[in-house]
């Protein structure tokens, strides 16, 4: 039982590259914290610093009220699940799970009880004598989980544990991990670049970009009120439509309420096809360019009449002037057709011109 | 590959058989010659079929030796060669796996210079540094000893480089998982790295054993006593006789016996070898 607190944590790699530029995060006891961000933003670095596998070059890492900056990984009372599982190839499944316990001098009887209990929970009991290479990807993943839970550590650390699995298994294991964590009630930090995984798993979501935290909070709160255009387009798929408020078309519709906002964001799912302009909202004429039907919903890719200024660089950025609209069902306009889509006032997101801050109108 | 055209296949097989014959014929001659009477061979009347002296020649070779020049039984030479080859193979593997471990997994001052110094010794085989090496061994009173036979040949850059290369392919996460599992450097080495290196060690053992077994120049230099003689040196001494006929059947029998341990090692280790290649563990 422990909370994990990062106080102004920094990491400069030998060579001078600053991978983590001052991060503050507080993960409460038993909470599931997800670090999400694009590849290379420093998620793994941060997690490995918590694990003790990377030195901390600034700030403090506190696990359960003890600053662990100088503590060896084995003595931090953490367990880690690696992306490639890092199972010992020459050891049986049983020994893989037992290794850490035996190294700590645990009695063999207790080791056996713990491993067998973990194997039961993870449905690994029939394959305890197998070697990792005789297991499927999903089973290896579960062994890696087993190795973590037998230790009964204060904190679980996961570094993209599902990214080597196929899509179906990934969803199944995601649910498994969440259930397991709820049951054991162990504080967890989970790294992923997949925003869907992040949204579904997290109690606290930490969105990272370029070694810094963009936003911390409850996943739905972040979805509803992204603090920056980066978060707005990273969380949610397809990404939020972002457009400049400086063009005549938008400026006139927003009127005075735009204030000093420079960027307007509207999520694809907040548009409806309508002839009216919603009161206080925004309507856009579009030419339908492409249609994607996925069954329960349909995505319309439209282009706006006038050319659009680019807005601040963001992940998943759309080409200027392109707008995605999500509508339920499969009925959609034909390609080439001209439509009008609108969004009501409460669904508009306004950001400063550089995209770094959210403006509440 | 074209498989089913009959003619081509016959050509290929013919070439292979010719190759086998070229390689195997001298061996066959050695075996045949080792079963015949010396007088016949000396007269140039050696038959190409095995003679009838197999047991008597081999008994004499193994337990008595030649009746002339060196009266040293070959079993003793084989024992010397075996001890030397084993010491060299095991010693080289032990030393080089430890030094490779140090170079790959530890950060210490002058790590790279040390690595390069080891690397440079590739250019200095025993033949090149033979005088200083002899001097050192002599000063340490190790002439005519197993230590003198094997120690100077044990330090090995090749094996160190090979293990270094292998260690660098072992995923870092294994080390990290070990650290989290509470294994220190020695435990990681012993519990994870050594078992993973098993097949590499087997392959190296085969190569190094044969290398050690076939040493000639160094044992010739530093052994003076007949009872410390290795088999490769022994064969040579048997051939050069000043005052009598060379006892060819015994020489040939010794040559045949000298071939056996390397063949045995290759055959015995082959399984481990191949299994190591098929199931990549990492
Ligand atoms: N050992 C290292 N030395 C120098 N730079 C590194 C090292 N490890 C990672 N980096 C750099 O730090 C940044 C963050 O890496 P990482 O934490 O692995 O990103 P993520 O897990 O978010 O994809 C990357 O730009 C990467 O190139
Ligand atoms: Mg990573």
Q: Mind explaining what this structure looks like?
A:
The complex is a heterodimer of chains A (361) and B (282). With 361 residues, chain A is of the alpha+beta class. Chain A has two domains: 4-229, P-loop containing nucleotide triphosphate hydrolases (Rossmann fold); 237-359, OB fold (Dihydrolipoamide Acetyltransferase, E2P), CATH 2.40.50.140. Helices cover 25% and strands 30% of the residues of chain A. Chain A has nine helices and 19 strands. Chain A has a six-stranded mixed beta sheet with strand order 6-7-8-3-9-10, sandwiched between helices. In chain A, strand 18 (349-351) and strand 19 form a beta hairpin. In chain A, helix 2 (93-103) packs across helix 3 and helix 2 packs parallel to helix 4 (137-149). The two termini of chain A are 42 Å apart. The model of chain A has no long low-confidence stretch (mean pLDDT 91). With 282 residues, chain B is mainly α. The mean pLDDT of chain B is 88. Chain B folds into two domains: 6-64, no CATH class; 74-278, MetI-like fold (Orthogonal Bundle), CATH 1.10.3720. Chain B has helices at residues 6-33, 38-42, 54-63, 74-105, 111-120, 130-139, 146-154, 157-169, 172-180, 185-196, 198-213, 217-222, 231-239, 248-278. The longest helix of chain B has 32 residues, at 74-105. Chains A and B meet through strand 6 and helix 2 of A and helix 9 and helix 10 of B. Bound molecules: adenosine-5'-diphosphate and magnesium ion. Adenosine-5'-diphosphate binds at residues 13, 15, 17, 19, 37, 39-45 of chain A.
Break the fold down into its secondary structure elements and pairings.
The complex is a heterodimer of chains A (361) and B (282).
Chain A lengths: L3 E9 L5 E10 L4 E5 L6 H9 L6 E6 L2 E2 L10 E4 L11 H11 L4 H14 L15 H13 L5 E5 L7 H18 L2 E6 L2 H7 L2 E6 L2 E6 L1 H6 L4 H6 L6 E4 L3 H7 L8 E4 L5 E2 L8 E12 L3 E8 L17 E7 L9 E6 L5 E3 L6 E2 L2
Parallel strand pairs in A: 3-8, 3-9, 6-7, 7-8
Antiparallel strand pairs in A: 1-2, 1-4, 4-5, 9-10, 11-12, 12-18, 13-17, 14-15, 14-17, 15-16, 18-19
Chain B lengths: L5 H28 L4 H5 L11 H10 L10 H32 L5 H10 L9 H10 L6 H9 L2 H13 L2 H9 L4 H12 L1 H16 L3 H6 L8 H9 L8 H31 L4
Helix pairs in contact in B: 1-14, 3-14, 4-7, 4-8, 4-11, 11-14, 13-14
The structure holds adenosine-5'-diphosphate and magnesium ion.
Magnesium ion binds next to helix 1 of chain A.
């Amino acid at each position: 039982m422990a909370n994990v607190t990062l106080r102004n944590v920094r990491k400069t790699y030998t060579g001078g590259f600053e991978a983590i530029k001052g991060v503050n995060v507080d993960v409460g006891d038993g909470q599931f914290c997800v670090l999400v961000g694009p590849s290379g933003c420093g998620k793994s670095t941060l997690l490995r610093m918590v694990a003790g596998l990377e030195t901390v070059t600034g700030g403090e890492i506190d696990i359960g009220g003890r600053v662990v900056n100088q503590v060896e990984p084995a003595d931090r009372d953490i367990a880690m699940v690696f992306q490639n599982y890092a199972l010992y190839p020459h050891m049986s499944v049983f020994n893989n799970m037992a290794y850490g316990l035996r190294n700590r001098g645990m009695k063999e009887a207790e080791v056996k009880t713990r491993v067998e209990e973990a194997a039961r929970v993870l449905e690994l009991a029939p394959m305890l004598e197998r070697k990792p290479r005789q297991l499927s990807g999903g089973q290896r993943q579960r062994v890696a989980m087993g190795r973590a839970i037998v230790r009964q550590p204060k904190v679980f650390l996961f570094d993209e544990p599902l990214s080597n699995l196929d899509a179906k298994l990934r969803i199944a294991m995601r649910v498994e991990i969440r259930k397991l964590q709820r049951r054991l009630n162990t504080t967890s930090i989970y790294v992923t670049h997949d925003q869907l995984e992040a949204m579904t798993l997290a109690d606290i979501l930490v969105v990272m970009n370029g070694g810094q935290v963009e936003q911390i909070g409850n996943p739905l709160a972040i979805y509803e009120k992204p603090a920056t255009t980066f978060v707005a387009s990273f969380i949610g798929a397809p990404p939020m439509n972002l457009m400049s408020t400086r063009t005549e078309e938008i400026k006139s519709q927003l009127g005075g309420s735009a204030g000093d906002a420079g960027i307007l964001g509207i999520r694809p799912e907040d548009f409806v096809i309508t002839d009216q302009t919603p009161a206080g909202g925004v309507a856009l004429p579009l030419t339908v360019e492409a249609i994607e039907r996925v069954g329960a919903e349909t995505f319309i890719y439209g282009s706006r009449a006038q050319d659009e200024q680019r807005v601040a660089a963001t992940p998943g950025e759309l080409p200027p002037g392109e707008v995605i609209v999500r509508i339920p069902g499969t009925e959609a306009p034909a390609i080439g057709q001209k439509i009008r889509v609108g969004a009501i006032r409460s669904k508009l997101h306004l950001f400063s011109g550089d995209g770094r801050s959210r403006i509440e109108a | 590959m074209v498989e089913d055209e009959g003619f081509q296949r016959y050509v290929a097989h013919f070439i292979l058989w010719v190759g086998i014959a070229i390689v195997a014929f001298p061996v066959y001659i050695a075996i045949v010659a080792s079963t015949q009477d010396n007088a016949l061979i000396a007269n140039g009347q050696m038959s190409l079929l095995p003679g009838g002296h197999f047991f008597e020649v081999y008994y004499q070779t193994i337990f008595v030796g030649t009746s002339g020049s060196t009266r040293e039984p070959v079993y003793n030479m084989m024992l010397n060669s075996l001890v030397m080859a084993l010491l060299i193979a095991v010693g080289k593997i032990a030393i080089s796996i430890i030094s490779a471990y140090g170079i790959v997994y530890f950060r210490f001052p002058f790590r790279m210079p040390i690595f390069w110094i080891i690397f440079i010794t590739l250019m200095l085989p025993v033949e090149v540094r033979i005088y200083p090496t002899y001097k050192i061994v002599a000063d340490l009173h190790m002439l005519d000893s197993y230590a003198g036979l094997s120690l100077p040949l044990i330090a090995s850059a090749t094996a160190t480089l090979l293990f270094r290369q292998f260690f660098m392919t072992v995923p870092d996460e294994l080390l990290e998982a070990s650290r989290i599992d509470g294994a220190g450097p020695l435990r990681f080495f012993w519990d994870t790295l050594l078992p993973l290196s098993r097949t590499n060690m087997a392959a190296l053992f085969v190569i190094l054993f044969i290398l050690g077994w076939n040493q000639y120049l160094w044992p010739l230099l530093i052994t003076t006593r007949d009872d410390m003689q290795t088999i490769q040196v022994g064969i040579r001494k048997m051939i050069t006789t000043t005052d009598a006929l060379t006892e060819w059947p015994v020489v040939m029998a010794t040559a045949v016996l000298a071939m056996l341990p390397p063949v045995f090692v290759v055959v015995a280790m082959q399984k481990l070898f191949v299994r190591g290649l098929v199931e990549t563990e990492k």
